[in-house]
Amino acid sequence: MIELNKNLKDFNTFGISVYADRFAQFSSIEELQSILNQRNGSDLLILGGGSNLLLTKDFKGLVIKNDIKKFEIKEETTDSVIVESGAGENWHSFVLKCIKKGYGGIENLSLIPGSVGASPMQNIGASPARSSWGRAAAPATAGRPTRPRPPRPRRRTPSPSRP
Using one digit for the tens of pLDDT, what is the confidence trace for 80-93? Predict the structure, then answer.
């Protein structure tokens, strides 16, 4: 359902009160297709978590908010896992779900605002701990957080004696 003259204050992390001529949220591909069929050639703004967005004036067009949620284990081995997540899933919630399942590798990327779908476009990929996650697929993103491994024993080598 498309809403008219929608305040976007709750949809951006700056909390700026600006209005969209038309606004709609979608939680499935079918809903998205239906909304886009009603676009009528107007300008389009796609919202994720609203954290990489500074709204300075009303938007004359259609704003759509991605609410596709999903967290599904696609493949799991002893040292890796493939997780499929909806692009509308909150990034921090995604990280917490991985931690709760015991999947390590992205836990240091918690508390980053935004959505899973926006993560390949944000600075999340700049982290040195970046694993092989982040292959974007609309409307979902596949990730490969790894299971934590026990530390390897280190062999101590005697230091050479000094004269």
Answer: 889 999 988 988 99
36-56, pLDDT tens digit by residue? Answer: 999 988 999 998 888 778 899
Q: Which residues contact 102 (CB under 8 A, 6 or more apart)?
A: 147, 148
Quickly tell me which residue has 């609410």 as its tokens.
67
Chain mean pLDDT for the chain: 78
Q: Are the CB atoms for 35 and 22 separated by under 8 Å?
A: no
CATH number of residue 83's parent domain: 3.30.465.10
**Residue whose tokens read 């990280």:** 95
Rounded Cα distance between 90 and 6, Å, is 22
The whole-angstrom separation of Cα 125 and Cα 88 is: 18
pLDDT of residue 49: 81
Beta bridge partners of 4: 22
**E strands of 57-106, at which residues?**
59-66, 71-76, 81-86
Q: Which CATH number fits the domain that encloses residue 36?
A: 3.30.43.10
Range of the structural domain that residue 120 is part of: 71-143
- Alpha helices of 41-158 — where are they, by DSSP H? 91-100
